[in-house]
């Protein structure tokens, strides 16, 4: 089962041809994808587009959009989670790479969203940018049921710490660049049961379409890259990463519940 665990299908870049993008993804063998929200203002669009294309979705507030988030949006998030049954809380986390984002405010917002995930017994989709240790500290403080560390690029020690806390690590387009030595080393050496696949489309384009719009239909070639690095068949990688995604996102249960809700 080929699952794109992180794809911003609701992004404006896909507005002109979203249906064609999904048709290409399905034709390439991508069964489904996870669409994470980034701000409270996008919750409705995220949910509507995900359901239109029979995708999974997550709800959360991205740290890069820090100054769009208000305290009352946390109340809205709880309401949307209770009503709409997301598969995870996300995209949430910490970004200490982008300048001008108040780290104290970021941590406060992150902690409160972790509490929501804990209260609803949901996994989290993590944005972790130059903040692995701080994210790990918060996760130890507010225990959640695991999740996915999206676009992971930390150390092996940090990777092991996330895995110990019940997390899978997302690998995508960055892994396809020959100079991405750390990411490739992690993709090769980490336990296969800790790895899931992603595109982060329309961003993080793989090497063969560098600087162009990324699409979920690129996921099979990303899977093939991982298979080559690990000396495995593509089918082995697809099956294993699909099982991993399903386990952390409770995939089959979610799809059954979602279809029941939509049929009412």
Provide a descriptive summary of the structure in words.
- There is one protein chain.
- The chain is an alpha/beta fold and 264 residues long.
- Helix content is 45%, strand content 15%.
- It has an eight-stranded parallel beta sheet.
- The model is unreliable at 252-264 (pLDDT under 50).
- Helix 5 links the parallel strand 5 (124-129) and strand 6.
- The longest helix has 17 residues, at 103-119.
- It is globular, with a radius of gyration of 17 Å.
- The chain has helices spanning 18-28, 43-52, 72-84, 103-119, 132-141, 156-164, 181-189, 219-230, 234-249, 251-263, and strands spanning 2-4, 30-36, 56-59, 88-95, 124-129, 147-150, 167-171, 195-197.
- It has a single domain (2-263), classed as Metal-dependent hydrolases (TIM Barrel).
- The protein has ten helices and eight strands.
């Amino acid at each position: 089962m080929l699952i794109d665990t992180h794809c911003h299908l609701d992004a404006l870049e896909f507005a002109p041809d979203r249906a064609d993008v999904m048709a290409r993804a399905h034709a390439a063998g991508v069964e489904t994808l996870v669409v994470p929200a980034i701000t409270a203002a996008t919750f409705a669009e995220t949910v509507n587009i995900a359901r239109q294309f029979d995708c999974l979705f997550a709800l959360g507030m991205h740290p890069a959009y820090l100054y769009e988030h208000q305290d009352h949006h946390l109340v809205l998030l709880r309401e949307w989670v209770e009503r709409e049954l997301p598969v995870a809380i996300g995209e949430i986390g910490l970004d200490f790479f982008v300048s001008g984002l108040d780290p104290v405010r970021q941590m406060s917002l992150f902690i409160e969203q972790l509490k929501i995930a804990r209260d609803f017994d949901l996994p989290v989709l993590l944005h972790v940018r130059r903040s692995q240790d701080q994210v790990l500290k918060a996760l130890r403080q507010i225990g959640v049921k695991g999740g996915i560390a999206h676009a992971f690029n930390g150390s092996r020690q940090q990777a092991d710490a996330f895995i110990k806390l019940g997390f899978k690590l997302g690998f995508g387009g960055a892994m396809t660049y020959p100079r991405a030595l750390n990411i490739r080393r992690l993709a090769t050496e980490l336990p296969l049961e800790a790895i899931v696949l992603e595109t982060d489309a329309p961003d993080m384009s793989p090497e063969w379409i560098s600087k162009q719009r990324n699409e979920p239909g690129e996921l099979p070639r990303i899977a093939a890259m991982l298979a080559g690095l690990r000396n495995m068949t593509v089918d082995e990688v697809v099956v294993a990463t699909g099982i991993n995604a399903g386990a952390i996102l409770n995939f089959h249960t979610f799809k059954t519940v979602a279809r029941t809700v939509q049929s009412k």
